[in-house]
């Protein structure tokens, strides 16, 4: 039993006892307050059980406890009034409540996650300050320079030149770099739930979220991840050169539900055989260097198998060795980012390697990416890949909301603007 569950049960018991005592004082004393307390106790019980056994079973439990409570209330008055009709009704209440309690006890202990219906708001859910600094050359006239804003090849001078199709062969422009919200990563407890667009596709009951709190003592977690295009050019093209923008519309690039390798570590190692090189204590212990770097400054891209404080990048599946839901969600979003470049048939294009064009990067350059929590609670900052949630995660995943997270993936972009 977790501390939250213990607090819910204690609150239920105290409110129920206080309500019964108020009712026992008689109809001329405090019946309304007693009824209110008992109703609030039932509400707490209902919310607690809805996450454990599902909505319908919790509703049965609410009705059954309500019937038993009414039965006890009628019994106290029937002893005084000695009314046989009231006793008969009491007997029916007790039988109905007993049957409902049997149904609740035998209900399967499985709850289907609820997909939220709120669509992501591009104004309130996105930290637009993460776009800065906007650099011209190597200077930053707009916005302060963060620790993870590294130089881009070709942007050392204010004037740049890039190859061009014949007959021009070369074009000249102004060096520019900035951060763009290019992708959205959804980590969901319910398969086919898309919280950023507020809908569920299909009714598939594939494996969803599980963690050590569900009985697994290994401390591991699993979630499905959706990789979506965020159409940043529709917004940023109004203030930046269209040469720097990539014309992309809202689209779904990848959903892990259709990927059989996402749920199987062994089969995934056949596609990414380099995972064997990092499956040893020495390689994992060296990730402490990346963890320190990501918390102090930015991620260490020379250690692509590490994700800082979020754990190991391998295996590139939906399994991660962390039962903390927020860290597990951030780590799985980063895994999907890396997986886009390591899976055959997929390409991870990085626009911050060269200022003339996006470059394929089968090995990710981690310091070119930053993560911002967008849902269920918007984060106030963008964080380097692997930064501990102690710094940025306070209040980002409250227990009264569902464990479906949306991260906005900001990437650095360099360009030679006309």
Q: Which SSEs are present, and which pair or pack?
A:
Blueprint lengths: L2 H21 L7 H23 L1 H27 L2 H22 L28 E3 L2 E4 L16 E5 L6 E19 L4 E2 L4 E2 L20 E2 L1 E6 L3 H4 L14 E5 L9 H7 L9 H5 L1 H10 L22 E2 L4 H18 L6 E2 L8 E2 L8 E7 L7 E2 L4 H4 L12 E13 L1
Helix pairs in contact: 1-2, 2-3, 3-4
Describe the structure.
The structure is a single chain. By secondary structure, the protein is an alpha+beta fold. Strand 3 and strand 4 form a beta hairpin. The chain is built from ten helices and 15 strands. The protein folds into two domains: 3-105, no CATH class; 180-412, no CATH class.
Highlighted features:
418 residues, alpha+beta, 2 domains, nine-stranded antiparallel β-sheet, two-stranded antiparallel ribbon, 10 helices, 15 strands, globular
The helix fraction, in percent, is 25-40%
State the assembly state of the protein chains. Answer: single chain
SSE-based structural type = alpha+beta
Total domain modules: 2
Order of helices and strands: HHHHEEEEEEEEHEHHHEHEEEEHE
Radius of gyration, CA atoms, in whole angstroms: 28 Å
Count of helices? 10
Cα distance, first to last residue? 62 Å
Beta-strand residue fraction = 15-25%
Which residue ranges are poorly predicted, with pLDDT under 50 across at least 5 consecutive positions? Answer: 23-30, 104-112, 209-217
Shape: globular
Q: Round the mean pLDDT to the nearest integer and report it.
A: 75
The main β sheet shows up as: 9 strands, antiparallel
Please tally the β strands and state the result.
Answer: 15
């Amino acid at each position: 039993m977790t501390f939250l569950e213990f607090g819910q049960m204690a609150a239920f018991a105290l409110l129920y006892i206080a309500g019964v005592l108020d009712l026992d004082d008689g109809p001329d004393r405090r019946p309304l307050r007693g009824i209110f307390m008992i109703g609030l106790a039932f509400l707490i019980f209902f919310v607690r059980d809805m996450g454990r056994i599902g909505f319908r079973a919790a509703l049965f439990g609410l009705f059954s406890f309500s019937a038993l409570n009414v039965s006890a209330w009628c019994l106290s008055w029937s002893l005084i009034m000695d009314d046989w009709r009231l006793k008969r009704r009491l007997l029916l209440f007790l039988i109905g409540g007993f049957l409902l309690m049997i149904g609740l006890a035998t209900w399967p202990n499985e709850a289907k996650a609820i997909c939220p219906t709120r669509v992501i708001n591009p104004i309130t859910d996105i930290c637009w300050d993460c776009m800065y600094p906007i650099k011209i050359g190597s200077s930053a006239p707009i916005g302060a320079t963060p620790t993870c804003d590294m130089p881009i090849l070709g942007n050392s001078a204010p004037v740049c030149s890039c190859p061009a199709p014949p007959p021009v062969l070369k074009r000249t422009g102004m060096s520019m770099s900035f951060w763009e919200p290019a992708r959205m990563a959804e980590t969901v407890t319910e398969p086919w739930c898309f919280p950023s667009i507020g809908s569920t596709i299909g009714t598939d009951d594939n494996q969803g979220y599980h963690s050590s709190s569900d009985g697994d003592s290994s401390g591991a977690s699993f979630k499905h991840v959706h990789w979506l295009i965020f159409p940043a050019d529709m917004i940023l093209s109004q203030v930046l050169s269209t040469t720097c923008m990539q014309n992309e519309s809202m689209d779904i690039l990848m959903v892990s539900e259709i990927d059989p390798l996402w749920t199987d570590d062994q089969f995934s190692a056949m596609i990414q055989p380099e995972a064997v090189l990092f499956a040893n204590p020495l390689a994992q212990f060296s990730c402490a260097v990346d963890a320190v770097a990501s918390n102090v400054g930015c991620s260490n891209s020379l250690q692509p198998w590490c994700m800082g404080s979020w754990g190991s990048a391998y295996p590139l599946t939906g399994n991660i060795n962390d039962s903390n839901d927020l860290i597990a969600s951030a780590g799985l979003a980063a895994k999907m980012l890396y997986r886009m470049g390591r899976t055959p048939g997929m390409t991870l294009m990085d626009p911050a390697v060269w200022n003339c064009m996006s470059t394929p990067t089968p090995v990710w350059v981690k310091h070119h990416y930053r993560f911002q929590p967008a849902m269920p609670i918007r984060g106030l900052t963008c964080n380097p890949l692997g930064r501990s949630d102690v710094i940025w995660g306070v209040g980002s995943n409250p227990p009264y909301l569902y464990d479906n997270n949306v991260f906005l993936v900001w990437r650095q972009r360099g360009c030679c603007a006309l």
